[in-house]
């Protein structure tokens, strides 16, 4: 036993000596030069971490409430719910229903995403803004503001120039796509077609088409309101916010809790300084009446199913009738009751009403 203890003691002394020798050979040298100021969120090099208060990250990530407010508001928006991201599994739907799909079409200029999106993210901050690209305030810039070719007719160009073209970002999704069969003689009351889908017509988000004064059939004589060139989506939808109920990054227009319209964006000196709601000069009331009038005429013509609000199939319609049906749905799906482009909506609805009044 004594021999074992002596052996263990000797081994221990040898290990200790080796450690001392290793430490002596690898002791820390002189300190390196100070690191550079933090840039793009990285540490300094060759020495101490760069921790200067002027590091670019602090332009956004600071003690201010700017980011907190934006996130708080956006979380109350319909975009943030991600309730339709399942559509990302179809390349024709992914561009507007998923974050990844939208980035795909911005890069390629195509109407469809490069591939289906299965692990989809909803529309979020990075969809619309250049988040964490430069790690400066420049990251709040919009991802794209240039003009675009609408899906219903790629020979057309939409360029919503107000507010530096910010609406061109929104418009890439808030537009109607082409339907089948398409109308090549939309003014013809002779040539007929037989749609097989009850969903024939424009897709739901027609706002950018209406705002730009495009998308309706037989619209050569249709007028346009000043909003087309003077108002941007953010002018009203991003107006002064009330908590997370309306305005700002909520994008909501009506405060349903109090039953009032958020007219903050309307009341500039050059626009509608006395506005108390969106029914300025009774224009929304007028458009709502015209929509109801044309709806009943389409129902009487056995075109519109008023239970589903879709096209009745199984019969032929003239291209002129289908053009009127398309225009009706374009105005209905716009959902602004004329606010986006009162004159354009008024004229397209009146064209349909006049047609059926002449029968």
Describe this structure as you would to a colleague:
The structure is a single chain. This protein is mainly alpha-helical. 35% of the residues lie in helices and 3% in strands. It has 13 helices and six strands. The protein has helices at 2-25, 66-74, 94-97, 99-108, 125-128, 162-165, 167-171, 207-212, 227-230, 233-237, 283-300, 319-334, 342-357, and strands spanning 192-193, 254-255, 260-261, 304-305, 310-311, 317-318. Strand 4 and strand 5 (310-311) form a beta hairpin. It is globular. The termini are far apart. 29% of the residues are buried. Mean pLDDT is 87; it is low at 1-11, 18-26 and 38-53.
Summarize the helices and strands and which ones pair or pack.
Elements: H1 2-25, H2 66-74, H3 94-97, H4 99-108, H5 125-128, H6 162-165, H7 167-171, E1 192-193, H8 207-212, H9 227-230, H10 233-237, E2 254-255, E3 260-261, H11 283-300, E4 304-305, E5 310-311, E6 317-318, H12 319-334, H13 342-357
Antiparallel strand pairs: 1-6, 2-3, 4-5
